[in-house]
Amino acid sequence: MIRLHHVGIPIPAGSEDQALAFYSQVPGFTHVPKPPDLHLDGGLWFLLADGRQIHLQIDIPLPEGSRTHPAFLADDLDDLANLLSTYEIPLEWDDNWLNTRRFKIRDPFGNILEFIDAKQTTHPLP
After folding, report:
1. What is the pTM of this model?
2. What is the Cβ-side half-sphere exposure of residue 108, based on CA atoms within 13 angstroms?
3. 10, 44, 89, 122 — which has fewest CB within 10 A?
4. Exposure string over 52-78, b if 16+ CB within 10 A, otherwise e
5. CATH 1.10.1510.10 fits 6-117, yes or no
């Protein structure tokens, strides 16, 4: 069996403070310290409730128009949408994927983050 452990998302060098504010407040991910031997690489790590991780890595930003992105299951998609609206983050709703409610947002660096209604998806996590 192969399962996802983490996904890497590129951020520009020197943007850790802005990334920490966004990822810990907006989607509410839990910041966790990186192992000491990886501190020199910069970036940040976040832990999701199911134990999977997000690694924000200092890297060259994705090219304009890239569709590469992580997708997250949200237990209450409407609550999340309401929270994001308090931050004035534009939501791009799309119900055309397997008749499942979902939306995408962009982080401050242009990365796409997709949020899927966990109650409707036909592809639940194990």
Report:
1. 0.84
2. 17
3. 122
4. bbbbbebeeebeeeeeebbebbbeebe
5. no
